[in-house]
Specification:
The chain contains no helices and 2 strands. It has a domain of about 55 residues. Strands 1-2 form a two-stranded antiparallel sheet. About 0% of the residues lie in helices and about 5% in strands. The structure holds calcium ion. Calcium ion (CA) binds next to loops.
Length: about 100
């Protein structure tokens, strides 16, 4: 009897028709599953708090893997943040 080792187990003759080889862990799969990942929000787009290489971007916190990161900048808290987009109106300075 010859033992054949398939590189891809789905290539085996007795593999089920719906056989799928699960993808290796990667940035953007929604799980913090690599040592180099600080976050994984389910995509590999930069600018949303978790960068394209799954590092937490400045002024963001990523409390839940697989979920979008949240900014730590709060408009209207009296502190000037670098990317405060002003989602709510700031009170205008009083004029004398
Ligand atoms: Ca990942």
């Amino acid at each position: 009897m010859t033992l054949i080792v398939y590189t891809n187990p789905c290539d085996a003759p007795d593999a089920p028709a719906n056989c799928q080889v699960s993808a290796a862990p990667g940035c953007g799969d929604g799980k913090v599953n690599q040592p180099k990942e600080e976050c994984d929000d389910g995509n590999s787009l930069p600018g949303d708090g978790c960068s394209g290489i799954c590092k937490i971007e400045p002024y963001y916190t990523c409390p839940t893997e697989g979920m979008p990161c949240v900014t730590t900048i709060i408009c209207g808290d009296g502190k000037v943040g670098p990317t405060c987009s002003g989602t709510r109106a700031e009170p205008a300075p009083a004029r004398m």
